[in-house]
Specification:
The protein is α+β, with helices and mostly antiparallel strands. The protein contains 21 helices and 32 strands. Helix 16 packs antiparallel against helix 17.
């Protein structure tokens, strides 16, 4: 283009058009591009690109959700099954380890919760990352401390200054001794008494200097300071330390002689106890432990290395602890005063005392006379039990109350000693309802039934994070009936209690699991909070109930008109507002979860009776009730559906209600309480023994189907919803 401008050749008009036209097109194209590349258009383009990217990601995510939607339930089930299998494996492994005299391990790594605290953080990943970073930092500090402090001990062996000092003082060094837990080094005199014992812990990297007077942490900035302080200490204190050691050894000899005397050994054998001749050193105390027959610590001989005082310590009764000026004469009387009973022997005796106190209670004696029963005054016993036999008015032996010697648990048994049942879990109402389970129960498989003309809804109640109430409601449109079965919250399935499923997996997963367990598909669910329960009862003007038995709960404190009192309802008729109905529905201390479930169904029946009196003229009230319930609950029922269900099922009668319990299809598997387990662990630790392994056992009250056959539950629901007994 530049060459053509410089040409002197004349150009025709036609040629000009040919030359200029392409140039103008390029200019116009360039201008359009320039106009498009304004800041505004660039920003808009970026936004469009981002939206497109987000859209594609969301579509991918929805595809993943769709993929998982049909599989999440099976994943939860499989995870639960894996957990159960892992727990069984862990228990079996611990039995093998215990048999081989190896320490048991916690194979679980997690605890199932019975009560979850509100406000618990849900960002487990973030917490784990914080903990891991803190761990890495701590490990680095520990490794640095170990390296530094170990170099101090190593330099003692190569330092000419320190080795010359040892020779002058007629002292020696043991050199570094390493084991799995520590590095150690001792400075010894010619009699091999140690003057200083250095102990470097591999766990925390701290270096300790231990003498017969105690233990101190070494904290110096350089090896030179460390060596100088050690030389100064030994030079100044060597003679005093050796003199103290000799005095301590003399006291130890007195104690050893008293323990090893023929009189003491005879008394030890007579009492069935053990007395260690070796000492356990802690700080400035040397201890000789005394154990009972099961290895429980009951006493100890303590030598204080500072003042050379010998104490005889009763670990169960401080008032019996004495200072012994002459251990040879004081030891046997001290041993004779010790309580040599084992932990479970004490529990057994406490149980017997509690029973005796009850038997002597005048109110209890009046009850026995009214019902024509007597209890044997003198207990009989065998190797494992202490029996208190119960007789009817004809003198027939009808039952026995027994104390299990091995555990201190009080059970009730048949006259022949069979059918043992913990008396604390005995519920007379549900003993009446015990079902005869057939010898053969079919395998119902995994199929879930949904008959035409039926509607199943789960009515659940919660307080806090866990579900307190679960009522499986079966509505039959053929005979216009409603049948209810309460499911106990302690039912243990897939490695955790059933009432914790909503917390971990959500309500849809709970309904899926209950559908599988019962064999009946749940159509809808409603999870109602206790405050919504109060509002609903108040909106309908309260409910009327009749109590056949008194309900007394001293642990449930109530405040009425500013006055605090105990929850107490005598037998009779009551008109209950929302607060009163909730109290009655939640109280369970002096009854059982099963009795509470019955009262909850009683309140639902009363609510049903009240609702039957509403007609289309009460549409505003019905709408307010539905709106209140749905706003304060978690449910998959919409407002329009809720009102439609009300008018459709308003006239239906609650034909039957039942409760799954230990009186029919469930049983309570054996377990040890956390308190008893902790006591056994503490006892083992005090004795320096291996742990009992009970931390891996079942600590919570749980329920399982009889014979561990989950088909029993399906059979129970089929009987209630379709059988003649329904």
């Amino acid at each position: 283009m530049a060459k053509k401008k410089k040409s002197t050749k004349k150009t025709s008009e036609k040629e000009k058009k040919v030359i200029i036209q392409p140039v103008e097109k390029k200019k116009r194209k360039k201008m359009r591009v320039t106009n498009l590349l304004t800041l505004k258009n660039i920003v808009i383009g970026i936004i469009v690109f981002l939206f497109l990217t987000q859209y594609l990601q969301i579509q991918s995510m929805f595809g993943t959700f769709s993929f998982l939607e049909g599989r999440d339930s099976s994943l939860v089930t499989e995870i639960g099954q894996i957990k159960e299998a892992y727990q069984t494996f862990g228990n079996d492994m611990n039995e093998v380890r215990d048999y081989l005299r190896l320490p048991t391990k916690d194979y679980f790594g997690f605890d199932d919760v019975d009560d979850l605290e509100e406000g618990k953080s849900g960002d487990d990943l973030q917490i784990a990352l914080f903990q891991y970073m803190a761990y890495l930092s701590d490990q680095e500090n520990i490794e640095n401390n170990i390296a530094k402090n170990k170099s101090y001990l190593e330099n003692l062996g190569t330092s000419n200054t320190f080795q010359t000092f040892l020779g002058e003082q007629v002292l020696d060094s043991s050199g570094i001794i390493e084991d799995d837990e520590s590095f150690s080094l001792k400075i010894l005199d010619k009699s091999d008494y140690y003057l200083v014992h250095y102990y470097l812990s591999k766990e925390d990297g701290i270096l300790y200097a231990k003498t017969y007077e105690g233990k101190d942490e070494v904290a110096t900035d350089s090896y030179e300071d460390f060596e100088a302080e050690l030389i100064e200490f030994l030079a100044d204190e060597k003679d005093n330390i050796i003199e103290a050691i000799v005095a301590i050894e003399e006291k130890k000899s007195e104690i050893s002689a008293a323990i090893g005397s023929s009189e003491t050994l005879a008394e030890i054998g007579k009492l069935g106890i053990t007395l260690m001749a070796e000492t356990l050193t802690e700080g400035d105390e040397m201890t000789y432990p005394v154990h009972n027959s099961s290895g429980g610590l009951i006493g100890k001989i303590v030598l204080n290395t500072s003042d050379l005082e010998i104490s005889l310590v009763d670990v169960n009764d401080n008032s019996l602890t004495v200072t012994a000026s002459d251990i040879s004469t004081a030891l046997i009387p001290f041993l004779q005063k010790l309580d040599t009973r084992t932990f479970f022997e004490i529990k057994s005796l406490e149980a017997q005392e509690s029973l005796q106190n009850t038997f002597e209670d005048k109110g209890f004696q009046l009850l026995l006379s009214q019902v024509g029963l007597t209890i044997s005054q003198e207990a009989r016993e065998d190797e494992g039990r202490i029996y208190y036999d119960v007789y009817n008015s004809n003198g027939t032996h009808i039952s026995s109350i027994v104390v299990e010697k091995a555990t201190g648990v009080i059970n009730i048994v048949s006259p022949d000693g069979a059918n043992s049942e913990n008396i604390l879990f005995f519920d007379p109402e549900y003993k009446k309802k015990t079902l005869e389970i057939p010898d053969y129960i079919p395998d119902f498989g995994d199929s879930v039934t949904h008959e035409e003309g039926t509607f199943n809804i789960l009515i659940a109640g919660k307080h806090g994070n866990l579900v307190d109430t679960m009522i499986f409601t079966h509505i039959d449109e053929t005979d216009k009936s409603i049948k209810m079965v309460s499911i106990p919250r302690d039912l243990y399935y897939n490695g955790r209690k059933i009432n914790s499923f909503p917390y971990y997996y959500g309500m849809p997963e709970l309904t899926r699991v209950l559908s599988e367990l019962t064999g009946y598909e749940l159509d809808k669910y409603i999870l109602i909070d206790m405050y919504a329960f109060i509002d609903v009862i108040d909106l309908v003007g309260g409910v009327d109930v009749t109590l056949e038995k008194a309900v007394i709960d001293p642990t449930y404190r109530v405040v009425d008109n500013g006055v605090e009192g105990t929850l107490y309802y005598e037998p009779g008729d009551y008109h209950l507002g929302g607060v009163e109905a909730l109290r009655l529905a939640r109280s369970r201390h002096t009854s059982s979860d099963f009795a509470r479930a019955e009262r909850q169904q009683l309140i639902l029946e009363a609510l049903q009776d009240k609702a039957q009196n509403f007609g289309f003229g009460d549409a505003d009230t019905i709408y307010a009730i539905a709106k209140t319930v749905l706003e304060q609950t978690e449910t998959d029922v919409g407002l329009d559906d809720a009102i439609a269900y009300y008018f459709r099922y308003q006239g239906y009668e609650i034909e039957s209600n039942n409760v799954m319990s230990s009186g029919n299809v469930l049983y309570v598997p054996s377990y040890i309480t956390v308190e008893d387990c902790n006591a056994l662990i503490a006892e083992a630790e005090a004795n320096g023994e291996e742990g009992p392994g009970c931390e891996n056992e079942n600590h919570a009250y749980t329920l399982l189907p009889r014979n561990n056959d989950w088909n029993v539950i399906k059979w129970f629901f089929k009987e209630n919803f379709e059988g003649e007994s329904a």
